[in-house]
Amino acid sequence: MDQKNQYLNKELNHLGIQFSHHLASLDGHAEQTHQCNLVLLQALNELHHELIKHQKFHDAVDTATARTPIENQSWIYQHLSNTLFFQVGLITLYHFMPIPLHDHPGAYGAQQVVSGKVHIRQYHPVSRIELKQSIVSLKTVAEHHLNKDECAVFQPLHRNLHDISSFSQYAILLSMMIHPYKPEERSWYFPMELPENTQGKLYNRLKSRASPSKM
Q: Quick check: 88 and 214 in contact, CB under 8 A?
């Protein structure tokens, strides 16, 4: 790894530790959800400010823009930094090839549109999901139609499940996670062919699925 990349990773790791501690300090705060969202937006803003100073980021955006769809892959993930506290990367996704509904166990995160137009739909469990539970009830809690530079955030217990699709021919997202999880800890959710009711819609929950991403 060259000296410039080492410096970037050091700066991003420092940023991740800083905001990890900031989020931990909010535990038990009466307005925790709102305050966490503000911290995540601040972290994303500082992350983007730091990244645009480095040629590595601009080269990565050029690479993401030039990518073409890969057979049996709905999207492509490109790592920029991956540390104990912080995971940063670029996601390239394509029109009519959405990223299926999935969760982010224990993670805080945000996605910002670098180019294109993106639709992010966020969900919440109707009741607590047990570790080995395979059928769950989910309800939609937010929908975002995002243009360039707009973003959406999630927390471990708030809007932690989402699916993502591109309204444009392709789109690129800057993805940030604080307290990233291991890929095998993530679950994917696929709707069951049953009518939705006031308690939400039923989904099959799968603990493993081959994918190019570590979102």
A: no
DSSP SS3 for 84: coil
Q: How many CA atoms lie within 13 A of 181 on its CB side?
A: 17
Residue with tokens 């709102």, as numbered in its chain: 34
Instruction: Give the predicted TM-score (pTM) of the model.
Output: 0.87
Distance CA(52)–CA(120), nearest Å, equals 24
Residue ranges making up the domain that contains 169: 3-206
Q: Look up tokens 């530790």; give the residue.
A: 17
Give whole-number Cα distances, 162 to 42, 66, 159, in Å: 21, 26, 7
| CATH at residue 79 | 2.60.120.10
- Which of these, 44, 8, 2, 38, lies nearest to 23 by C-alpha position? 38
Quick one: tokens of 52?
Answer: 């645009």
State the pLDDT at residue 101: 96
